[in-house]
Amino acid sequence: MNTRSPRATVRGFDSTHFRQALSQFATGVTVITTRLPDGSFRGLTASSFNSVSLDPPLVLWSLGARANSMPIFSGNSHYVINVLAAGQEELALRFSRRSDDDPFDGVDYELSRTGLPILKGVTAWFECHNRSRYPEGDHVIFVGEVEDCAVQPQPGLLFHGGRFGTTKST
User: For the Flavin reductase like domain, which residue ranges apply (predicted)?
Assistant: First the structure.
């Protein structure tokens, strides 16, 4: 018995329409940070972050397969996912730019137990072991096993419809 569903032979949309539809899903905003072999830091903005499992504690995020930082994040053993708080739009923009400037210049952070940057003022952070990676389409899905985390409850930074927003305080 064949249990596979038939695939559409023609899509009824183009990539611009697909991106616009995706933009209607509000997401949190994160900055993923890690350390390079020379001791410097690398960070990037990502809105593709989800929980996967409570036991073991697993989270995921994705990165474009052709991203300049792909070799760094796929080769490093650990990274920190910093969940941005309301008012941290500048951090999101700073770490989303391709630039020769060091995005950590002037940014307050502390170091995790493995020496990775944890950005100050974030609403939560997760220090992860780089457990597995799954190439899918034009991205790679990273699954991290959370080894440490912290939370500072406050309104979070959201991205919806191409704009930043915030959660309401509870």
Answer: 22-166
Q: Domain limits of the chain?
A: 29-159
Give Cα separations from 6 to 1, 2, 10, 63, 106 (angstroms). Answer: 14, 10, 12, 29, 53
Q: 145: which DSSP letter?
A: E
Rounded to two decimals, what is the model's pTM? 0.89
Along the 170 residues of the chain, how does pLDDT read in single tens digits? 667 778 877 888 888 888 888 778 778 999 999 999 999 999 999 989 999 999 999 999 999 999 999 999 999 999 999 999 999 999 999 999 877 788 999 999 999 999 999 999 999 999 999 999 999 999 999 999 999 999 999 999 999 888 888 987 65
> Using CB atoms within 10 A of its CB, is residue 34 exposed (0-12), middle (13-18) or buried (19+)?
buried
Taking every pair of Cα atoms in the chain, the longest distance, rounded to a whole number of angstroms, is 61
